[in-house]
Amino acid sequence: AAGVIQSPRHLIKEKRETATLKCYPIPRHDTVYWYQQGPGQDPQFLISFYEKMQSDKGSIPDRFSAQQFSDYHSELNMSSLELGDSALYFCASSPHAAREGVRGTQYFGPGTRLTVL
Amino acid sequence: AQKITQTQPGMFVQEKEAVTLDCTYDTSDQSYGLFWYKQPSSGEMIFLIYQGSYDEQNATEGRYSLNFQKARKSANLVISASQLGDSAMYFCAMREGLGSGNTGKLIFGQGTTLQVKP
What we know:
With about 120 residues, chain A is mainly β. In chain A, about 5% of the residues lie in helices and about 50% in strands. Chain A has one helix at about 95-100; strands spanning about 5, 10-15, 20-25, 30-35, 45-50, 55, 65-70, 75-80, 85-95, 105-110, 110-115.
């Protein structure tokens, strides 16, 4: 079965540089979530999209922005990178909660490991 | 505010034995879902099992079962016949129902590291 695709899998950047992470959801999943997992921590919700509109926003820095495109893939743009941005970034997709209710299981991609030097 | 608590930072289990990973949650919502995910050392997040707040029976998926005690607000994961490949971090997560601004994001517990001994 098709899974969530994330690219790149690994990314090394210098401080103050920019990074773009990409996510391709499971076919027919119209909702995308982004999570950030710092070393030794649990994943923290950043932002979500449904039908190309932002649906929720968590503790996402103003330096970060994201969007969902017409083919439902999503991109997380990160600017002015800081050392503290080093983390594993997950994208997850699910059918929309309005159809699935709380059952809409989120399936995670393999993650992008970002290292900021 | 919703909250998930996993009080066991680390657990050991002998191969072929059963193990229970604890998870308690706090929510004022009547409709919610509880999920368990497995994160091996390679980093990916693998969905294991789901329990809905209105489900009357405990969920089971192969060797995984969920001991759901709604009154106690607990959703413990039971892994039967542990295998070496079960060694990983396990996260309990909750998703509240739509309404009151909930849009389906997951709230995770701190995780439990499970090590299976041969």
